């Protein structure tokens, strides 16, 4: 038992233990904001499903042993008074377990089996292994004993309600080992010549290679860079189902999808060190672009949702992506993205502008990515300033790409539409010292205390100085000790855990920090960056954070948060190094 721990330690209650390419993780999180007492093998094929319950056992009594769980990249351990159990990924679909002084039970998480749901359990004589089959994931989970003894088996071939599983142990002073595989219908019996220590070392080495590529600039000034990289690395899945490329899920907790703006931040963080993976992140939602040019709301293993869309930040993102990739996209690659961005832009200009309107609209807050922001309280079908601003940036990016592709007429057209859209944005939505929203049905206008109203700062250098200064002043009012509150903390609508009605979020932080910097408000941009980086270093990489306490909220292992930290930390490191 000599697997040497190394790397950033983390709590599996916050961050699931997994590996690059795997569709399952080891975690106590078994459903949305639901924490089990024991660690489970949780699969994300066909949704999030806890399949197997893993319980360390006292070999003297056969009962659950009191243990401490330790996790770091490559190695998960249960440690008790009498011994320990280690777990490591041998491959994306196989984990190896080794125990000494403790046993382990592997049982189905669900006890009820019906003709359409639950887990069936049997011994496969052809593979000499025990197999769980899951209706929920549509996959099999094969447990092969490598050394030690199966001390107990229950529920084999049982129907209906039953406890199903096995317990493994070893003789006194002995060691047991087993392998658990997630597979489809069948494969040859499990066989591996690799020892456990070599498997754990290989897993750790794979992560080290990744973090060295993604964050070679890391130092004591960015103490959470390795953990941020682990969150991204461990949430990456292999192509399967409707995920057409290697994909970084937003989380291997319950937010196990790729939403069509979240992916941009992961692409940007990965671009300098993992350019192929970054390219795949940017392109993945576009693989599901429909005939109107719209992107889906989200994509995951067995589901593409189209009931909403997400904001068109992709021109902004691609402009930055081009600058971060070590090798510029070739002409063929640029042409493909150009046509995809063109269709996405035409969707907003054609299908999201009311007759005679110059500005596009959202149909619901979900379309903006700011689902329940107070901007949408009066009405939901709304013309907002952030949408027009994102579209202006996308039009400028299309013009830049058209010039690179020798499409001069198209370049002039995109620049013209960009100028017209920005002029309409200012003429129609800038009132006195702020932007307002306008209802499509009523024509009524209003302002709110939402940070969303200030998002046109993303226009940066394109904004008139007096407008960018007014926006910067209002942005300052949203700053708490931890970062930018999405609703003024003095607002009657502010909620500490109100999703987009108060908490701090990564994407709004990155977009605003970038816009402030491009508009010349460097000191404020530095402050926004520093507060968010300190927030992550103290409270981790949650989906969002309480604006007044910094406490992580909702899903606690969110990749766009980790990627945003990496983006801001890398940029800060480079500024300091100049």
Structure description:
It is a single chain. The chain is of the alpha+beta class. It has 13 helices and 30 strands. The strands form nine sheets. An eight-stranded antiparallel beta sheet has the order 4-5-6-7-16-12-11-10, with helices on one face. Strands 1-2-3-8-15-13 form a six-stranded antiparallel beta sheet, with no helix packed on it. Strand 5 and strand 6 form a beta hairpin. The model has no long low-confidence stretch (mean pLDDT 97).
What gap, in angstroms, lies between the N and C termini? 47 Å
Radius of gyration: 26 Å
Q: How would you sum up the major sheet?
A: 8 strands, antiparallel
* Structural class based on helices, strands and sheet pairing: alpha+beta
Total of DSSP H or I helical runs spanning 4+ residues: 13
- Low-pLDDT parts are none
State the total count of DSSP E strands: 30
- Fraction in beta strands: 15-25%
Mass-distribution shape: elongated
> Could you estimate the helical fraction of the residues in percent?
25-40%
Present the secondary structure layout:
Blueprint: E1 24-31, E2 34-43, E3 49-57, E4 68-72, E5 75-79, E6 84-91, E7 94-100, E8 103-108, E9 112-113, E10 119-124, E11 129-134, E12 139-147, E13 149-154, E14 160-161, E15 165-169, E16 176-183, H1 196-214, H2 225-234, E17 236-237, E18 247-248, E19 258-259, H3 262-270, H4 275-283, E20 298-300, E21 303-305, H5 314-324, H6 331-351, H7 365-368, E22 382-383, H8 385-404, H9 408-429, E23 430-431, E24 434-435, E25 437-439, E26 445-446, H10 465-477, E27 479-480, E28 483-484, H11 506-518, H12 522-539, E29 544-545, E30 552-553, H13 559-577
Antiparallel strand pairs: 1-2, 2-3, 3-8, 4-5, 5-6, 6-7, 7-16, 8-15, 9-14, 10-11, 11-12, 12-16, 13-15, 17-18, 19-20, 20-21, 22-25, 23-24, 25-26, 27-28, 29-30
Helix pairs in contact: 1-2, 2-13, 3-4, 3-5, 3-13, 5-8, 6-8, 8-9, 11-12, 11-13, 12-13
